[in-house]
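user: can you give me the structure for this one chain? tokens are fine.
assistant: on it. calling the predictor now.
[tool input]
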Amino acid sequence: MTKVILLIVPNSERVLPLERVLKISDAFDVIKFEAVMYDTSMSQYAPNFKKQKVLYSRLLSNGETGCTISHQLIQKKYSLQAKTIVILEDDARIPNLGDFEMVVQQFIERHGEEDAVLSLLPWKSAFVKARQRASLSIIPLTGNSPLTVGYVITPKAMASISGLNSDFSYLPDWPPTETKFYITNKGVINHGDESTTSLIDQTGRVKTKKIDKLIRLTCIPYLLNRKMFSRFGEYFSFAVKPSFTWRIDNWRVR
């Protein structure tokens, strides 16, 4: 059985619709993992605030940092078990369990030995409204997949991603590793429903300003803070490469 880790908000019923669907399946071993509801008094964690500021031109909010810590803890723990797993945040919703099972199994069979991640979301939300026309074929990306609401992740990917983000400087989606990302343009999960939305959206998701994105492209932040990065490639893969790969992948997937 494939382990499905449900990342849940403590003392919340948000996960119940997801649990009800997964209980029907005999393909998954479902495990709950309480999310870290981070605040700065939690001395057991030591986010690299200086690097956050360099990367995002701001400090990550408590909600963003908690999400980062939670995903990192799961990835680090299960990388040691040498089995591909599924990670679902509690606002993930599965509209068709058969499609979900099929895509997860196909990815594990084809890519389980790689440093690889399969996003279970559609490439863009517009595809949710056109599921009958969209495909469930597993498509390799040149860059990263969308958000961490739901994904299949191999042991090698868990090790590389959690290792680079051990200081919680990057958002969970995604630290710049050599991980290969895959997606289906149709997707097999939705992000939330009519009564459930992202807690991060409510409590602190902040988009990077355009001027700050332009400054990142100049590589000036890297030149001023070289010691924070393992190599130039780490910074380039985070700040510069996505501006090209997103456009390429958007054309290819659509």
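assistant: here you go. Strands lie at 2-8, 28-34, 85-89, 92-93, 116-119, 139-140, 150-153, 180-183, 190-191. The chain has one domain: 2-253.
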